[in-house]
Specification:
CATH class of the largest domain: Mainly Beta
Largest sheet: 7 strands, antiparallel
Distance between the termini: 13 Å
Shape: elongated
Number of strands: 35
CATH architecture of the largest domain: Sandwich
Strand content: 35-45%
Number of domains: 3
Radius of gyration: 29 Å
């Protein structure tokens, strides 16, 4: 009798603690920071010649490697929604736990301006020395099916996307599979959940998911667990009933996780700054900065022309462009083909020159043919000369060029070409920037905001670059460094009359 009373008391205490923790940590909405400078690379792009320095040194590794029929069982892989992050991004680092990202979805939006969700199905490692972690952390690999939804088919190498965490939108029930079973441990895999998993519990004990994506729990004493409750990071739960230790058996709950509202404001925005002496140009990531070059023009430009450009010499004050002959061209090229006129209404360029006559301005699509140390050869795949421009001389040797980007010009372009005449042997660009068509209030975040960086709670859950990383228990608040600290006073809303009523009901039912 005494033994039963002790067991009942333990269960009551656990129920109370469980209720307090999960009702107060339960969140209605989460912040999902927008990481604006991410490079996506598709399978076909990896095979292109200008990706050799990357492709030859990477290895893909896969989530759920112990799951039989992984490709058909994992819904995101089955429908070709799979994507792969750099190996240093494969975990979420909480205060005292490292959580696998396997099965987590991210929403990505590229030059097509159509949001699309993909599921993290693995990661890639890089064994070379040319590319550093600052660049690799901002790369994700996608399959060709996903790439076609994000970018122009003209694109032949990596392209810019914006990225944010998001729940998956798959209409499928989660699965729980006992991978292995022995006298001391059950190895359990829970998949197709649409959410980031955190823990599993039977009402007496609770176990956090391992960083390899599996749960390791004690075998059931009575042959099966009546209920196993699986929780997401946001403290949503699903329940699996009557789980035995039989290896290979799959269980399903009666429903999927309930969704959390995501405070999302994420847009694809190409860089508007071409050159500005207030910014350290050399420190910018090469995947998101403009390349400014010059070339000789011998005849009017037409599609399929090959042009050989010489890169400008960059200093803190200007980009100097060497010229050869009277008629030359300036190429301002972005690494990604974008719908230029949807983003920008005008480009403003300040040029130092003793004499400058602009003959034409084009939006163009240039694809790389070959390169050496001093020059690049391109083929001109598309050309539109409907750009109106205005040039005025502001000082004895300075010109201001304003280029209108009319929305009647449709399509994807990666270059602006200026056809001009001058008697100078070189000219200098001292300022160049595009003006956005519509100003946006979106906050652009770095890849650091994709992780919790060993914190235990969210500093801010509704704005800026703070990822949702958990909530504090009643009587505690989240500090500016992301840790729970005891409050000097407990807000009345943190423990309401409803909480008290439920606790009295628990006591009434079990005493």
């Amino acid at each position: 009798m005494l033994f039963l009373m002790v067991i009942s008391l333990k269960f009551i205490i656990y129920s109370i603690l469980f209720y307090i923790q999960y009702t107060n940590a339960f969140v209605e909405s989460i912040n999902t920071p927008c990481i604006t400078q991410v490079e996506a690379i598709s399978d076909n792009m990896l095979l292109s010649k200008n990706m050799e320095k990357f492709f030859n040194y990477i290895t893909k590794e896969y989530c759920y490697s112990e799951l039989p029929n992984r490709k058909s069982e994992i819904y995101g892989i089955n429908i070709s929604d799979d994507c792969y992050v750099y190996s240093k991004q494969k975990y979420i680092h909480l205060y005292n736990h490292t959580i696998s990202r396997c099965g987590q979805c991210i929403e990505i939006i590229g030059p097509s301006l159509i949001p699309y969700k993909c599921m993290i199905a693995g990661w890639f490692t890089y064994n070379g020395s040319i590319i550093d972690d600052n660049i690799l952390n901002n790369i994700i690999l996608v399959n060709d099916i996903v790439a076609k939804k994000l970018v122009s088919e003209k694109e032949e190498s990596g392209f810019q996307i914006a990225m944010s965490y998001s729940s998956c939108n798959y209409v499928i029930l989660p699965s729980l599979l006992v991978i292995r079973s022995n006298s001391t441990t059950l190895t359990v895999l829970v998949y197709n959940t649409n959410e980031r998993l955190y823990s599993i519990s039977n009402g007496v004990w609770s176990s956090v998911i391992d960083k390899d994506g599996y749960f390791y729990i004690d075998p059931p004493i009575d042959g099966f667990y009546e209920r196993l409750v699986v929780s997401s990071i946001e403290r949503r739960t699903i329940v699996f009933n009557k789980v035995t230790s039989q290896s290979g058996k799959v269980y399903h709950p009666i429903s999927q996780f309930s969704k959390v509202k995501e405070n999302k404001n994420c847009c694809f925005i190409p860089s508007k700054i071409i050159f500005n002496n207030a910014i350290n140009y050399s420190s910018l990531n090469s995947g998101f900065k403009y390349l400014v070059s010059s070339f000789i023009i011998t005849k009017n430009l037409v599609i399929n022309d090959k042009i050989k450009v010489t890169q400008g010499i960059i200093s803190t004050q200007s980009i100097s462009l060497p010229l050869n002959g009277k008629r030359n061209g300036i190429v301002i090229q972005y690494p990604t083909s974008v719908q230029v006129t949807k983003h920008f209404k005008e480009t403003v360029i300040h040029i130092n020159s003793t004499s400058l006559v602009v003959k034409a301005v084009y939006l163009a699509q240039l694809n790389l043919v070959s390169q050496n140390d001093s020059s690049l050869s391109h083929i001109l795949l598309d050309l539109n000369e409907n750009c109106k421009f205005l040039i005025e001389k502001t000082f004895s040797s300075q010109y201001n060029l304003r280029i209108g980007l009319n929305q009647t010009i449709k399509g994807f372009f990666n270059s602006l070409i200026i056809d001009f005449e001058t008697s100078d042997s070189s000219i200098q660009i001292t300022f160049a920037e595009s003006i956005e068509r519509n100003e946006r209030s979106m906050v652009g975040c770095t890849i650091d905001s994709f992780d919790c960086n060993n914190t235990e709670c969210s500093i801010s859950n509704d704005k800026d670059c703070y990822q949702y990383c958990g909530s504090c228990m009643p009587g505690f608040h989240c500090t500016s460094s992301g840790f729970c600290e005891i409050s000097t006073s407990i807000p009345s809303s943190s423990f309401s009359h409803v909480h008290l009523l439920v606790l009295f009901l628990i006591l009434f039912l079990f005493i």
